[in-house]
What we know:
- The chain is an alpha+beta fold and 291 residues long.
- It is 36% helix and 17% strand.
- The strands form three sheets. A five-stranded mixed beta sheet has the order 2-9-8-6-10, with helices on one face. A four-stranded antiparallel beta sheet has the order 1-4-11-5. Strands 3-7 form a two-stranded antiparallel ribbon.
- Helix 6 runs parallel beside helix 9.
- It starts with a helix and ends with a strand.
Amino acid sequence: xxxxxxxxxxxxxxxxxxxxxxxxxxxxxxxxxxxxxxxxxxxxxxxxxxxxxxxxxxxxxxxxxxxxxxxxxxxxxxxxxxxxxxxxxxxxxxxxxxxxxxxxxxxxxxxxxxxxxxxxxxxxxxxxxxxxxxxxxxxxxxxxxxxxxxxxxxxxxxxxxxxxxxxxxxxxxxxxxxxxxxxxxxxxxxxxxxxxxxxxxxxxxxxxxxxxxxxxxxxxxxxxxxxxxxxxxxxxxxxxxxxxxxxxxxxxxxxxxxxxxxxxxxxxxxxxxxxxxxxxxxxxxxxxxxx
Length: 291
């Protein structure tokens, strides 16, 4: 524990304290706290502090869902290796007419820990008006690239009431976008699932590094388009989309997450429970660079 405390920076401590202050300010602004209720909170200070401590443990420790992991020997058996960033961007510009360029010099930097390579991923805004429309365009391109060998088990159910980006992913991609202003294609450090094979989606999210975030159906679909050998055999590691949330009833109850699999000589898109751990699956994730 002593080692952990000494690694905490002053900036991190200030940010966490600011979170707490913001919560109190918001409670007052929204009318949850007045003079009398604040006094009662003060009188119950010990219990209040215990609740805060419990919340800190719940949201900071990575041992939640530790039993949602299984042994897995699946991997990249079809010969996938990350392509050069120029080759990837050239492929994307052929697939998405009108999409511009990437800051390719970023791929000359050392990779962040746990990343496999640099990947070219268009901003979904450069492809369609909404994220969900962009996902459908990627599906159409995968089906064309695979000569019809693509099946969507959620056909007609990838609209905004069903499929959405995970909040962490939105924030991290926004950071990347701000760092790469003026470019339609982002250069993203990522891994294609091997790091989290055998873990449930929510377990993978739980153990993400501080700079790590899940990738979704659009981002992963683009990676599949530029690396068609990644998912070409039943024995390849299948792909969980930890950067998405999915509501199977279209009611906002996001109990599932999408996946890409391979069966019957075709790529398949479906959804699975976020708490199920399968040896055949691994969550794909991106990383913010420290450079």
